[in-house]
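@channel sequence for tomorrow's demo:
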Amino acid sequence: MKNRLKVLRAERDWNQQDLADALGVSRQSVNAIETGKYDPSLPLAFRISEVFELPIEQIFFRD
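structure tokens (generated this afternoon):
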């Protein structure tokens, strides 16, 4: 699954640690999601969508 996390972070001028702190996960988890090595759980995907105030479908999509 692909995602727009890196772009969305850049729009807010956040680094991976800033997003990790907002989500309550490690920076390594954010990096793994961004690079496609890990797909987030559904609850984590919902938290990400809440942080960016976007529907999940505008953040994650099939490759």
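heads up for whoever presents: The longest helix spans residues 42-52.
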